[in-house]
Design brief:
This protein has six helices and four strands. With 184 residues, the chain is of the alpha+beta class. The longest helix is centred in the first third of the chain and has 20 residues.
Length: 184
């Protein structure tokens, strides 16, 4: 370091010291700093904040990529196509029937009329997925009805690529011939 640089640094330190003295800043070693709480996460109020984050994560938020964006005009055709796109299933869907056959049961009518199964059967069904209320379920229904005619609940499993709903025979009503037909 040259002699001129050293003098410039010392002069800057002295000027800072004079400024602090003028404002009454004194160094008190007994002063304790309060501990700080963790900061609260703030949510952006900008209308398109999440869109910007997505574009940034995809690497599309740079100036050179802006030329590839085209602003769409909002009209009825665009809205119809967006609704159509939203209604398309992006996951593979399956419906799987689960029956309980008690010892000695051989005919279809007696098997479909079982109101419940053994404890081992119930444990098996409980492990298939999580219980969903059919009246409020928004996912894949697989032909089960919201009105209760095919039961109140059903096991359901979903991942990013698949949706499965289980038609559990013992959970479906069996009080009429029509309800037995729905089970089969």
């Amino acid at each position: 370091m040259s002699h001129d640089q050293e003098n410039a640094i010392l002069e800057a330190i002295m000027q800072q010291s004079c400024i602090e003295d003028a404002h009454g800043c004194t160094l008190n070693l007994r002063t304790k700093v309060e501990s700080q709480a963790a900061p609260w996460p703030t949510q952006s109020q900008a209308p398109f904040h999440l869109c910007r984050l997505l574009l940034n994560d995809l690497g599309m938020n740079s100036w050179d990529k802006r030329k590839s964006f085209h602003i769409l005009k909002k009209n009825s055709k665009l809205l119809r196509e967006l609704k159509n796109l939203d209604s398309r299933q992006c996951r593979e869907t399956h419906k799987i029937a689960v029956f309980y056959i008690a010892e000695g049961q051989e005919d279809k009518c007696s098997i479909l009329s079982n109101p419940r199964g053994s404890q081992a059967y119930e444990d098996f069904v409980a492990g298939l997925g999580w219980e969903v209320e059919l009246s409020t379920h928004c996912g894949f229904m697989g032909g089960l009805q919201r009105n209760g005619s095919t039961g109140q609940t059903a096991p359901y499993y979903a991942s990013s690529t698949v949706e499965v709903i289980f038609h559990v025979c013992t959970r479906m009503p069996s009080d009429s011939d029509d309800s037995l037909t729905k089970k089969a």
